[in-house]
Structures are given as structure tokens and as C-alpha cells.
Amino acid sequence: MVLELKLRKIGNSVGLVLPKEALAHLKADEGDSVLITESADGSLRLNASNQNVSRQMKAAQSIMERYRNTLRELAK
């Protein structure tokens, strides 16, 4: 599926309006959260938010912040 979407001004922000086809593909509805992640090739991916994944990402971020120096040393 390829959809070309226009950016629209919404208040003081800019947003995208997702058509019904995209929402159905994401299995998302109004009020749901979506995640935008960067792929290894630099492209962006849009996924419906999953409670478990969100909780795991918050835990991973906390660990990375707490052990920032240790992880930096290990990366050498």
C-alpha cells in the first residue's frame, strides 16, 4: 500500500490525517497511539502502539540512561 498524504496545519502544529484504509491496516482508531521508529536504512516506520512494547521501550530507555557510561565503554 502506498498513500501520499499532505501535511496540514492543526493549531500551532503540523499533522497528518490518516485515511480509513491506513487506520484499518494499522488496526488503529481515533484516540489510539502510534509509534514512529527509524529503520536501519534511515526510513521511518509507523506502527500501532502496543502496551507491552511501550512498557519495554520505557524500561530499555531507563536502563540505557542509567548505564550510559558502561554502555559507551562496552561499545569501544
UniProtKB/TrEMBL annotation:
Annotated Gene3D superfamilies: 2.10.260.10
SpoVT-AbrB domain ranges (all copies): 8-54
SUPFAM superfamilies registered for this protein in UniProt: AbrB/MazE/MraZ-like
GO molecular-function terms, A-Z: DNA binding
Highest taxon above the source species: Bacteria
NCBIfam families associated with the record: doc_partner (TIGR02609)
Name listed for the protein in its UniProt record: Putative addiction module antidote
The species this protein was found in: Prosthecobacter dejongeii
